[in-house]
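Exercise 3.2. Students should predict the tertiary structure of the chain below and write it as structure tokens, then compare their answer with the key that follows.

Predict this chain's 3D structure.
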Amino acid sequence: MTYALSTTVHRPFDATLDDVRGALADQGFGVLTEIDLAATLKAKLDVDINPQVILGACRPPLAHAALSAEPSIGLLLPCNVVVRALDADTTLVEAMDPDIMVSLTGNPELTDVATEARDRLTSALDALAR
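Answer key:
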């Protein structure tokens, strides 16, 4: 079972990160959290990794619908989107597949929410590839 939706973007990391924020916004997602993994690991462990940021994306109507169907679903929210430099000119963008919510919980009431979230995240990733 795959747990990620992904696209490879042939642009540098910083430009792609900005584009990801815009593509998510175009699909109605806000970014609630942002974790700079490269900076954190450098500060805490003095190790270097390629630039990598985790964006915690949320579309409030979807979050509310998911919480209404499954009160503990907050454990899987927000939708994590990872932006990772593969090299100077190539960036990988991955989003957690919302279908995981349905498979992990076994709650069919989450199906419509997961489908809409997946469609919106897929549209955001597709926009990056253009």
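Discussion points: The chain has a mean pLDDT of 96. Residues 111-129 form the longest helix (19 residues).
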